[in-house]
Design a protein that fits this description.
The chain has about 325 residues and is an alpha+beta fold. The chain is built from five helices and 21 strands.
């Protein structure tokens, strides 16, 4: 059997097995897609949820009003409670998406009909800004073409298992997806139980490493890798521990910092209340601080989707 025949056979199996678990979200523009992952539970992107009672469109053409159980706005995930009788549950894949891995991507944009396309994983460990400018790390990109309204839908292995959740359209040819690993599964299951996601909070707003290097060079200071503290919550964890505006953060938890996403990754493995060791440069002076992390405030999920503000960690 040739590749085209094998691909057609795989697509038919995915169409019959996995696509009925793909739903549409919303009854007006903007709209999105979602995935049935548990009895009475649908996961979608948080930016698709514009009210406490969104409408869910199923593959059989039925429409049902849902209740937003928990919305993780900063992580761009939401779980909806809705009757799912007759819809299969999406199976989660094992293993990480590798560069060049062939995949299917599926969607049901606002209930306007199921889509299925083919592509490959084109990039790994990608970072981008989610709703409200919140940093989202460790996503992957793929080349399967999808229309607007496909966020919240699945990226699938050729056997129809969930490899990722589409979350952001990148131009006209690529999509960024959250990796459907054990950490994401745990997050989705917690949201399904109504548990809010508590994220660690440092209380700093940062300038990129290249900007920090230019600014230090402009005032006659030696160039250093790091991220510059541009904004500071003086009553936040970093401010109380002694961090000042203009400090160059060079390490966090032992990890070297050259861009803001390095700090986001260092914090991702921590919990509110944990201590993190910071190394910084103030002018030409090296300093070290121990900071007890706080809990990041979570904005309302369906208010101020269009607001732009400086992201802080």
């Amino acid at each position: 059997m040739g590749f085209a025949a094998e691909l057609a056979e795989a697509a038919a199996a995915v169409r019959d097995g996995a696509l009925p678990a793909v739903v549409g979200i919303g009854n007006r523009w903007p709209s999105g897609s979602g995935i049935v992952f548990g009895e009475g539970l649908v996961v979608t992107s948080a930016h698709n949820v514009h009210s406490a009672t969104p409408e869910v469109h199923f593959a059989d053409g039925s429409r049902r009003e849902a209740t937003a159980v928990t919305v993780d706005f900063a992580g761009d995930l939401a779980v909806l409670k809705v009757p799912t009788e007759g819809a299969p549950l999406m199976k989660w894949a094992k293993g990480d998406p590798q560069l060049g891995t062939p995949i299917f991507a599926a969607a049901n944009p606002g209930g306007r009909g199921l889509r299925l396309s083919f592509g490959v994983v084109s990039a790994q460990e990608r970072d981008f800004r989610g709703p409200g400018g919140h940093p989202i790390t460790d996503s992957f990109e793929h080349t399967a073409p999808l229309p607007h309204g496909s966020s919240g839908g699945p990226v699938l292995t050729l056997s129809g298992e969930l490899l990722g959740i589409n979350t952001r359209r990148l131009g006209e040819g690529f999509y960024a997806a959250l990796q459907a690993d054990e950490a994401l599964l745990a997050r989705v299951e917690a949201l399904g139980k109504g548990e809010a996601v508590a994220r660690p909070y440092l209380g700093v707003g940062l300038l990129p490493g290249e900007v920090a290097r230019r600014l230090r060079s402009a005032v006659g200071l030696p160039e250093r890798n790091g991220v510059l503290v541009q904004h500071l919550d003086e009553e936040g964890p970093a401010g109380r521990a002694g961090v000042l505006k203009g400090d160059l953060l060079t390490k966090a938890g032992g990890a070297e910092l050259s861009k803001a996403s390095d700090l986001h990754r260092a914090l991702a493995s921590s919990q509110p209340g944990d201590q993190i060791h910071l190394e910084l440069v103030r002018g030409a002076e090296e300093r070290q601080l121990e900071v007890t992390l706080g809990t990041a405030p979570e904005p309302e999920a369906w208010e101020g989707h269009g607001r732009r503000h400086h992201p802080r960690r």
